[in-house]
Amino acid sequence: MIISPKSISTLIIALSISILSCAQDVTKKATPIFKDGEAQIVEAFSDSDQWIRHDLWVETEFDTDGDGQPDRMHVAVTRPEQTETENLKLPIIYVTSPYFAGVAADLPGVMWDVNIELGESAKDRVHPEVTRRGQRPIISNSHIRKWVPRGYIVVHSSSPGTGLSDGAPTIGGQNESLAPKAVIDWLCGRVKGYTEREGNEEVMAYWSTGKVGMTGTSYNGTLPLAAATTGVEGLEAIIPIAPNTSYYHYYRSNGLVRSPGGYLGEDIDVLYDFVHSGKEENRPYNNKTIRDTEIKNGMDRETGDYNDFWAGRDYLNQIDNMTAALLMSHGFNDWNVMPEHSYRIYKAAKEKGLPTQIYYHQNGHGGPPPMSMMNKWFTKYLHGINNGVENDENKSYIVRENDDPQMPTAYKDYPNPEASHVTLNLNVVGVLPGNLTLNPGTIGFESLTDDVTISGSELAKEAFSINRLLYVTPVLKEDLHISGVPQVTITLASSKSASNLSVWLVSLPWQDGKDVKITNNIITRGWADPKNHKSLTKEEDLVIGKDYTINFDLQPDDQIIKAGQQIGFMIFSSDKEFTLHPKAGTELTIKLDKTSLTLPIVGGLESFKNATN
Q: Whole-prediction pTM value?
């Protein structure tokens, strides 16, 4: 075939364009992509076989294992290959945990014996040892799969005294705040990292933009807050999920020794043993110094009083330095890490003027915000995309009863700004149970006898019981929306010098069965030690028969009580699921006209009257 000169010229031009186009494709660099204010999955970042993974150790400013050398934290990095091949710098999603190397077995005798009289010391418990998993802790992949394809580097680290990190676990001590601070300092080029635990070859985070966000659930959600309270530069945003923000509030309640739900007899030293997975040769020193001295001398299971030990493990006391934006997440029916933990920090951060939002759902422990909320939060504060999330007029997102957790309802704030306090009083008119109304309280007394063998749910279902007092509203004619922190005032006398005091707010009639939803029975709860009626830091024995007035908050809630239900205010003594278990027989006498329940009701007094008249 003969080709004309014109055709040859055309072909050369076409080939030149094609070659140039290929060259341009080759040189085009992968970058994060954003749509609707969210980081999108980028194909170039999504091949997990091409991700770069490496381990290193970051040097801290503390030595808690007593070897005379600064403790080093084990860090695992996962990043797109373009951070190496294309000199791409990306922001960081950082997760730190004491759990990555495994935890101790739940052996008989690990928990404290709760079958003791109040104020007595329990016998010593069993101390289990953690068998560490593997030569390299198994780091969670869930955050890696979620964030690396969206243009982030994901960093994990093991807490002091766990996994391949040096040091000792202190369960809320200062080193657990300074450890993630050191990792963030390393990501920002301010401290040294090493390729080996005991080596001297340095490694730099040259792929980091110096913008860090942290997230995690439970203990892993506590540690972002711990890091944020140091004020470390570079930590731009945190998303704690069901975090423990105060170890006192986790293991005590208004002076009362109280277990977290589902872990009867657990205390702070039990958690220490549970996570202590660091070097076996360091454990005897750590046990002697931290568990058997600092924790033992500070935890005080005999009185339950608040002291310097607990104050040092309360992040609300350390929040002044915090500058990170805060998206908080919690469940209103989390009876392990109770919803007060998130609310108290959210409230303080908001008062500081920090960017804040809070997401609440109606379920139990855990439960992250919808992915879109998290994505927008990190996109704004780590990538710097102006998506307006900080200007959202709705600061509270609450999953309504029976709704999809991914579809929360937006509110101006939490508590609902339209809620106001309505105080309800106790009335007894010869029928049982008593009435909970707006009328003045009945002048007189009613008594109950403690018996911890009977559960709270059993007490709530009984038409009559000598072991609890129950006061109920009229049957609701309309739905009633509670939003905020219920408060109680109880005036009582005790037949003994010490007693437990427990309060449940319940929705009646009580429903039984496997399919009953978590929101259907218990509205909220609270516990207190009458011996701490004057002070949380110093209890005093009760004078038998003398009246004492105790004021305390129940757990925060946001719940719509349906028409046809009654709200029940149940007062009893020992709570089988949460408190110590003294012998039965303590009698509490409640002064009716000096006892009340204050509910935060959306629409206030008018809404309550409409629902009950």
A: 0.93
